[in-house]
Amino acid sequence: MSNYPREPEFEQAYNELVSTLENSRLFQVSPELKGCLPVVAIPERIIQFRVVWEDDSGKLQVNRGYRVQFNSALGPYKGGLRFHPTVNLSILKFLGFEQIFKNALTGLNMGGGKGGSDFDPKGKSDNEIRRFCYAFMKELSKHIGQFTDVPAGDIGVGGREVGYMFGAYKSYKNSWEGVITGKGGAWGGSLIRPEATGYGLVYYVAHMISYASGGKSSFEGKRVAISGSGNVAQYAALKVIELGGTVISLSDSKGALIATGEEGFNQDDVNMIAECKLKRQALDSLYSAEDSTFPSRFKYLPGERPWTHVERVDVALPSATQNEVSEDEAKALIAAGCKFLAEGSNMGSTQEAIDVYEADRKERKAEGLWYGPAKAANCGGVAVSGLEMAQNSQRVSWTSEQVDKELAGIMERCFWNCLNTAKEYYDIAEGELPSLVAGANIAGYVKVAKAMHDHGDWF
């Protein structure tokens, strides 16, 4: 890739996959599968376009729009749309690349893609956001469809933005179809979709805890540090609380809230944070409110992430953004007693942090930290997006219990697939827990590579 501009996020994701595959027995057992690597590393198609829209003062604004259609071997391109000033091709390529293998691990027929814009919805009126979404979809609608590419929401794209884009697509194409997931419940959305990534993350970790303890332990009594305060973090926190764990931290881009006592966050606290985020306010607004009880139970640390500030922790769930756990923060979590870490955010840990996790797992075996990578641990969101697509195709709506049961089953199968694949392609020392990051990478890659071979994409 030396003839391309530097794309650090994408290069990190690609190199992590390659190093895992090359350090395993995969290419010894199936040397022909190595031939897929240079092919799967290049997107099938990258769409880049301008988005011109009018703000409330009547002034024209222009942003960049993107869609990276990375791989369709297993089904239509599937992956979110991100509206954030930091959006660029490197970030979207990394997200789309990870999405290929994440979607493969769900067991559903979905390819991998990602898209978005450097548009910042913060501080914009509803009308400005609506005008931007219609302008954005004017071009994107030419390249997506229920059998081609089915986007979803991501950072900066919630129910409001999905609604506007769905309405724009319907208007431009004169077609009502399941072309975007995360829709409203009254017009084709799936129950449990907002909760899915956070719930699925906790379901995955519950299997990690059960396996490591021989079925003797669960979330009951565990101290759980969570970063972020968006959908993933909120619903992960609520599910941890439901299962008897104690949530000791939440955060946003402005700072972190850390529990000062044994109580942690309760359901009402999480609901207040959800309302705060719907108003696009920072956590410090809750902490500084005159009638707030937060100062008596939490400390607020401006500009900080929680990882070096939690004194005792059993489980860590990074759920904010990419590369949010550094090497030093990984060491701090291990020193604080953390035994399980799984990513609710995509590529939530730097490669140096992952090296720390894996070294600790090998050195201290069952006493070390066990790491669940994003492409496995947070695949619940896209899994329920796939279930939404299925419901749209059938013109039916499933109950929340049915969707939740399907989600739990997908996360359980994903866990055992990662675990058993790691056992198959790596030597596991006595008392050592298998590498879930290795298992996830190999299982996802093999499934995609074999499908691409069958299609004649490489030979």
Automatic annotation (TrEMBL):
Q: Which residues form a coiled coil?
A: none
What keywords is this UniProt entry annotated with? NAD, NADP, Nucleotide-binding, Oxidoreductase
An annotated Gene Ontology molecular function:
nucleotide binding
Record-annotated Glutamate/phenylalanine/leucine/valine/L-tryptophan dehydrogenase C-terminal domain positions: 190-456
The record places the active site at K114 (proton donor)
Q: Which domain of life is it from?
A: Eukaryota
Task: State the reactions this protein catalyses.
Answer: L-glutamate + NADP(+) + H2O = 2-oxoglutarate + NH4(+) + NADPH + H(+)
Residues reported to bind NAD(+): T197, N231
Entry binding sites for substrate:
K78, Q99, K102, G153, S385
A Gene Ontology annotation in the biological process aspect, one of them, is: glutamate biosynthetic process
The UniProt entry, under NCBIfam families, shows: PRK09414.1 (NF006929)
Recorded hits in PANTHER family, A to Z, give: NADP-SPECIFIC GLUTAMATE DEHYDROGENASE 1-RELATED (PTHR43571:SF1)
The UniProt family comment states:
Belongs to the Glu/Leu/Phe/Val dehydrogenases family.
Could you describe the subunit structure of this protein?
A: Homohexamer.
Name-wise, this protein is Glutamate dehydrogenase
Q: Which organism is it from?
A: Ascodesmis nigricans
